[in-house]
Write the structure tokens for this entry.
Amino acid sequence: MSNTSSLDVAVIRKDFPILDRMVNGKPLVYFDNAATSQTPKQVIDAIVDYYSSYNANIHRGVHTLSQEATDKYEQARLKIQRHFNAAKPHEIIFTSGTTHSINLVANGFSSLLQKGDELIVSAMEHHSNIVPWQMLCERTGAMLKVIPMSEKGELIMDEYRKLLSDKTKMVFCNHVSNALGTVNPIKEIIEAAHNVGAAVLIDGAQAAPHIQADVQELDVDFYTVSAHKMCGPTGVGILYGKEEWLHKLPPYQGGGEMIAEVTFEKTTYADLPHKFEAGTPNICGGIAFGAAIDYMNAIGIDVIAAYENELLVYATEQLLSIEGLRIYGTSENKTSVISFNIESIHPYDIGSILDKLGIAVRTGHHCAQPIMDFYKIPGTVRASFNFYNTKEEIDAMVEGVKRAKAMLQ
Ligand code: 7TS
């Protein structure tokens, strides 16, 4: 593993113009990275460059601008392919993000399932990895089973193995929980599912910014990512799918660019990846996603992970020094997410006081209501750190939480 001395946070912060701004008269402390990350100027420049120099529709024009835009868009696909080590570029489907990617797969499985089939979901999913599968079950008569979790916020793997059978057709689970930060043992989950012939979708939305995922090494069937959590823009992401699965799934949306030939009698579909990319895509977003991947790789995901782990350990210690503060998600295997509450104080009230101090955290159920039901709480305060955050910012948050506690109790 690389050592953290190669991450110069003062230099890195200069890449993020937004980190200079004031909020409510205080310097911004941005700890809502799990919701969306901030954007470095290298990515902002890629967006400005696109609209200033070669904005055009892709895959269709003979003219120079269209060719330039097409080349840049397809280069971004190649960068993403290399980053996640997909075997082929056409296994990377551009989508609007993780939610779109999951819906694309869930919709495709409608034609592959029948009544009595079983799907397995983990107890710690974001709603976007629950609701599309419930809708699929309603359409097909398949049943949804749930891998339970422990008080520490870890999946109970023995229970998972008991749920698997020859009825299991698919398993879906996040790589990292957005509400708890738990890193799930996805390699084991994938292997066990494959042993009963089930396909696996891993929601990588929270993992991709912090962990280097290798889809071939994981042998995962589908992996989903949102660019905006990886220093890229909103409204773009990818679905990785193994070629054989992408051939089996029918197209999700019909329209331009996804066809081979259209007549009123019959339409044939384009090859991968275009079969799943109907209509004009988020061209600039895809190119900027490529720039974001370049930016993160220039620092190094391992370097990022080691530094963020330092922040996690430091913040955990500091927060736990506050009497009555409880952290939800205490696995040893975590990314830099801390969900907490202080006794009976409502998380929203703590979040509002922190905001007055310029500190951005998320409060609420984090689109993971089953986790809140498990702990019997309405929600948590969630602080999530990225590699441009500092220990001084953590100190400011801890002081803010102490102040909130004194005011609210
Ligand atoms: N899956 C996980 C694990 C997530 O954390 C999120 C977004 C999604 C899926 C959906 O991603 P989208 O880009 O399609 O919206 N999570 C959060 C969050 O924790 N706070 O705001 C959004």
The two ends are 44 Å apart (CA to CA). The chain has two domains: 9-30+300-408, 45-298. The pocket of 7TS is lined by residues 34-35, 97-99, 126, 128-129, 174, 178, 203, 205-206, 226, 362, 366-367 (CB under 6 Å). The chain has a mean pLDDT of 96.
